[in-house]
Design brief:
five-stranded mixed sheet, Immunoglobulin-like, about 15% helix, about 650 residues, alpha+beta, QUIRKY-like, metal ion binding, 4 domains, five-stranded antiparallel sheet
Length: about 650
């Protein structure tokens, strides 16, 4: 906040990153040089053997407890076994580690709290080695168990691996973190960082040509009103009623769906006859498995096929299938030459067609370092105090990344780095920040949804190659009372080009959309309808992952509600229209004032008035042109700002 006003502009930052040590077109892999290095103490509890178990009624539940200063972490419980295996990794932030040693204790849950220790291992911090990539993982070792006084108990050993490392370690994403110490049980999965991949999406085109030998019920002299209904999952589409009011109707109409691999639901087609009074009769149906549908990669029409329509009637209360088949002539193809839009068309992160055979060569690598956030607003109450549990989600192409959740912090530090392959420079990287409301089991805050804190978009076409951009981006959300700044996020971005020739061709020769979009274009309305189908599929698939990428998160990143009517958008568009017409109204008022001649400063007698009008027009014309130009630039800037805020709806 500057001078009592909220600052919405970008701010350049200077984080302590190692981006200077690796650069150039030869670097095409991530080395964690876009984030600040964070030191962690890693403890891997592998297994125990030959434990001196003290069973109570023949039952014992041994577990391992790690105590470092004020931090305490435990493994799962096991039933009575002298040889146990956990293979669990714990990560403690080194800056918060207190004391000079750590205690790893094997305890028995069934024994009394004061006397449930089976044995312990004490490790001094000065004896712990440092292991950094690209070093191989540290080998585990067996440690003898000791009693409270440090005397060997005679039996029992614990296999451990203890080392100091960074967030670049391979075990970091799946480790238990001390930052999430208040989270336990299955909710720990929600705090971990993960990478998700969108399923491959296809356009399913159903070209319904004609039907033959339909058998409508009732009066044969009645002209049937026939249409075709197609069902795929929860999507239902219908053709128009055929203009041919006979038993051989024709349509030649396309119905399009979005389907995802692996294919699940079949395509169900039924020919129905409108009987009036909201009554219809099914004249036949057919079921088509998508795995049997041909793929069309080139802009060549597929050959039509005839499909039998099955009709089942009730006879004496039993379902009976008729032996006579009506037929339906159709072209059904999976169009792999299109790019299936799942994002708003102005913020697309990938233009490649579905079929891999049609992909162009990779032009470079995009790297993103999610460093930290600052001044986040409180999002919920916990134990009577305000708090925020923030995590980030970034999307580019089919790859989604989710950072770990930093619990109870208004200034979280993630320092995680991710990499994407780039095939087109005219693409957009989207990063969103959310508050995690699923960290305490059955206690779900905020109605079961993770609220959004803000969103940032970065266009690759604005990035120079091999240059690191470190900026602090404002997180803005549009509230009913206006625009609100929810905090700032610090990012580091670098675009590395693998071939400047391919980059030059992408800017000059290669078309933006695949060839199929130009030969058989889809209307804006059609694309918007298909994008809604794609968004629903991605929400369903990604929410079934473990941990899930929740529906509200996917919809927010993809702008799932951008097609909905909004009062704010309607008012903004009305103001744009008035601003566009204002320059013409101002020009008309100015000419009207000249016509009425309210201020004839240059008027003269004996015909001098006409000369005065001419001089006035000539002297004021530059001022008129300047005023029109300023109004036009003002309207253009106002419209650009409104376009940038459309994602805040």
């Amino acid at each position: 906040m500057v001078g009592g006003k909220v600052e919405y502009s970008l701010g350049e930052t200077k984080p302590k990153i190692g981006g200077d040590r690796v650069s150039g077109s030869a670097k095409l892999t991530s080395s964690f040089d876009l984030v600040e290095q964070m030191q962690f103490l890693f403890v891997r509890i592998v297994r125990a053997r030959d434990l001196p178990l003290k069973t109570v009624n023949g039952i014992s539940d041994p577990f391992v407890e790690i105590k470092i200063g004020n931090y305490k972490a435990t493994t799962k419980y096991f039933e009575t076994k002298p040889n146990l295996e956990w293979n669990k990794v714990f990560a403690f932030t080194r800056d918060r580690v207190q004391g000079t040693a750590m205690e790893i204790t094997v305890r028995d849950k069934k024994l009394a709290i004061n006397d449930n220790m089976i044995g312990k291992v004490t490790i001094n911090f000065s004896d712990i080695p440092t292991c950094l990539p690209p070093d191989s993982p540290l080998a585990s070792q067996w440690y003898k168990l000791e009693d409270k006084n440090g005397i060997n108990v005679g039996r029992g050993e614990l296999m451990l691996a203890i080392w100091f490392g960074t967030q670049a370690d391979d075990v970091f994403p799946d480790a238990w973190h001390s930052d999430a110490a208040i989270v336990s049980g299955e909710c720990l999965l929600n705090t971990r960082s993960k990478v998700y991949l969108s399923p491959r999406l296809w356009y399913l085109r159903v070209n319904i040509i004609q039907a033959q030998d339909l058998v409508p019920a009732g009066n044969r002299n009645r002209k049937p009103e026939v249409y075709v209904k197609a069902i795929l999952g929860d999507v239902i589409l219908r053709t128009k009623v055929s203009p041919d009011k006979n038993v051989n109707p024709k349509w030649n109409e396309d119905l399009m769906f979005v389907v995802a691999e692996p294919f699940g639901d079949p395509l169900i087609l039924s020919v129905e006859d409108k009987l009036g009074k909201n009554m219809v009769e099914c004249l036949g149906r057919c079921v088509i498995r998508l795995s049997q549908v041909d793929q069309r990669l080139l802009p060549v029409p597929a050959a039509p096929k005839w499909y039998n329509l099955e009709k089942i009637v009730l006879e004496d209360g039993r379902r009976k299938e008729l032996n006579f088949f009506s037929k339906l002539n159709m072209r059904i193809t999976l169009d792999g030459g299109y790019h299936v839009f799942d994002e708003y068309i102005h913020y697309v992160s990938d233009y490649r067609p579905t079929a891999k055979k049609l992909w162009t060569a990779m032009i470079g690598v995009l790297e993103l370092g999610i460093i930290s956030a600052s001044s986040l607003q409180p999002m919920k109450l916990r134990d009577g105090r305000e708090t925020t549990d923030a995590y980030c989600v970034a999307k580019y192409g089919p790859k989604w990344v989710k950072t770990r959740t930093i619990v109870d912090s208004f200034a979280p530090k993630w320092n995680e780095q991710y990499t994407w392959e780039v095939y087109d420079p005219f693409t957009v990287l989207t990063i969103g920040v959310f508050d995690d409301c699923h960290l305490h089991g059955g206690v779900v805050v905020g109605g079961g949804k993770d609220p959004s804190i803000g969103k940032v978009r970065i266009r690759l076409s604005t990035l120079s190659t091999d240059k690191i951009y470190t900026y602090s981006y404002p997180l803005l959300v549009l509230k009913p009372n206006g625009l609100k700044k929810m905090g700032e996020i610090q990012l580091a971005v670098r675009f590395t080009c693998s071939s400047f020739l391919k980059l030059f061709l992408a800017y000059t020769i290669n078309p933006l959309f695949p060839k199929m979009h130009h030969i058989y274009p889809l209307s804006i309305y059609h694309l918007d309808s298909l994008r809604q189908q794609a968004t629903r599929i991605l929400c369903l698939r990604l929410s079934r992952s473990e941990p899930p990428l929740r529906r509200e998160v996917v919809e927010y990143i993809l702008d799932g509600g951008s097609q909905m009517w909004s009062l704010r958008k309607a008012k903004a568009n009305f103001e744009r229209l008035l601003a566009t017409l204002k320059c013409f109204l101002d020009a008309w008022k100015w000419f009207d004032e000249i016509r009425r001649w309210k201020n004839p400063t240059l008027g003269f007698a004996d015909g001098g008035t006409d000369r005065g009008i001419q001089l006035t027009l000539m002297s004021n014309f530059p001022l008129l042109f300047q005023q029109l130009l300023m109004n036009w630039m003002k309207n253009l800037t106002h419209s650009h700002l409104l376009d940038n805020l459309t994602f805040l709806e």
